[in-house]
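We include this case.
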Amino acid sequence: MQARLDHFKAAPQLMQAMLQFEKTVSSAGLEMSLMELVKIRASQINGCAFCLHMHTRDARAAGESEERIHLLPAWRESSYYTPRERAALAWTEALTLVAETQAPDSVYEELCRHFSEEEIVKLTCLIGTINVWNRFAVGFRAQHPAEYAVKAA
């Protein structure tokens, strides 16, 4: 696969604004482990190899376990996630797939049991941000570092 274009080069002012928004959201006060789980889960749903590469590495560097990273697609069936993380992951899935889910009341009600209104806004911004990054990376075929690249036959 080959990259389609360099979005940072094509629209540097917009991309700098995006980076600043990302920085603001990332420093808004949500737990690092929660933020990385959300970024990984949204990137899994969106099939974004670039973001999965980045955020699984970031999660490991922040102390996240391999088991929790690997079990993330099956978080509902695993006891490794806290009720707060489960609520965030459900909200992540609902908003990432919003055209299908319409953000169900039941998911929102569970979210309200574990997050303040301010935290819900922060989490929603985080989910929106990673979904935008996924769209840049998938849409423009951004390439993750390939230290284990397989050569085509």
